[in-house]
């Protein structure tokens, strides 16, 4: 193996755990998550972004570490494709914080033939593609709130594609004819961003995997359909019918130009969508090197954080039917009908702590308080109170709701409980279970909501590592962009102001009070019905031959580029 594959720039924290690394072999990864197309504009799941870390670069990134940092520790991004961090002292950020200049490294290339340098225009192309009518990336919402003209570009792109089947040629033509005032390539290696307002942690927004540049070849394909081009140490070389994604060496990768990644193994094979029982039975060391699932059964002490393991979200964009989800009486009736305890028991993973959840803020976030705005006896639901709420709809109105759930055994069992709860209150619910990709398409595209293709959906949310949970909450209940988390299109000026006040409050005690007031305001409107909070502690396994584990803090996953396989471990 050539010496060029030895790691560069790992620093003290990046020292390998053996004196001499091993090169070669195939790293085999198994995960319960579906692995999506390796396209920055459509990648949602951590497993997909874990592979993207090995194949793509973004302007800034969160470096891998020997151990995962505590949930409350703020990890700062460092330059990746960028040559340096922009600062006011260095002149790259103006005094008012509204203009940011980012300079790119000149030694990063696409795996084209011959290799072609990654330029500022590639970054602009990626951002336009992210804001196009078919991409579905949650990273767009905070960027659209910060970058001048990005929200308008996104709106115009969606309007231009409305009522049509978008084509790659049409999207590329729109991008060529329209500029984003806040994003400009000054020269091949210099970008200038103009912001709507000062955003001190703008670099953190630019560290999202969705903001990876894309080459000109992607103009010929809609997001998710392009043949991936790589800037990282590995490149995709195929996907089998069994869902195995294969990565091999990227010959255009220059280790001297990558301060964050290494390359030891000859290839990576990742299989997603594996059933949990199959994951448990995997023969680590013989057929699998690394395995991952969302939960662990080792107890509360290993919990990384807490998340909303389940909540209901209502479609508020669709037609205003007398018994539809846009009527507050219907949403209130659903909140009063649900047997939270039974739902929690259906969703429970053995050994994983959970709590019944009545507010939007899960444990661990500022402002979380155990309160119940819509109490029922012993949290088991109150059919009579639910029917009383429905009386406000008028005589003869019987709601009929379409309930979307993930195609997962526990979620389907929870859906059966929910439909029985609603039926007892006089609400008919028809359940459809969807694979992750189909469910994402239905929820992330506002056009499906406006067409009334769903009424209520069973979702989950875990605050992402290294992210600002305030921004994620804004994405859930304020922002209205394709790919954001505000699946139902909820809007409230009052809630938006309460959220802004909570985020701007510097005093932690007062901020917690403001966050709680925000939580109360959301639950009064009931765009969502929280059900269960669960401890999130990844369950992972490694074979004896795996060495040099490093962890990506934003994904809470192993950095596949720094792993090597010991020759003496089978």
Question: What can be said about this structure in brief?
Answer:
The chain is α+β, with helices and mostly antiparallel strands and 570 residues long. It has helices at residues 46-55, 120-130, 140-146, 150-161, 168-177, 202-205, 276-281, 328-337, 340-347, 383-390, 409-424, 436-444, 446-450, 469-477, 493-504, 508-525; strands spanning 26-31, 60-61, 78-79, 99-103, 109-110, 116-117, 183-187, 190-194, 234-239, 244-249, 267-271, 290-293, 305-314, 354-356, 400-406, 428-434, 456-461, 528-536, 539-542, 546-547, 551-552, 557-558, 564-565.
Helix content range: 25-40%
Largest sheet: 6 strands, mixed
Cα-based radius of gyration, to the nearest Å? 24 Å
CATH class of the largest domain: Alpha Beta
The named CATH superfamily of the largest domain: Periplasmic binding protein-like II
The overall pLDDT average reads 87
The tally of structural domains comes to: 2
Low-confidence stretches: 1-16, 296-303
The outline comes out as: globular
Q: By helix and strand content, what is the structural category?
A: alpha+beta
Supply the number of helical segments: 16
Count of DSSP strands: 23
Straight-line N-to-C gap: 20 Å
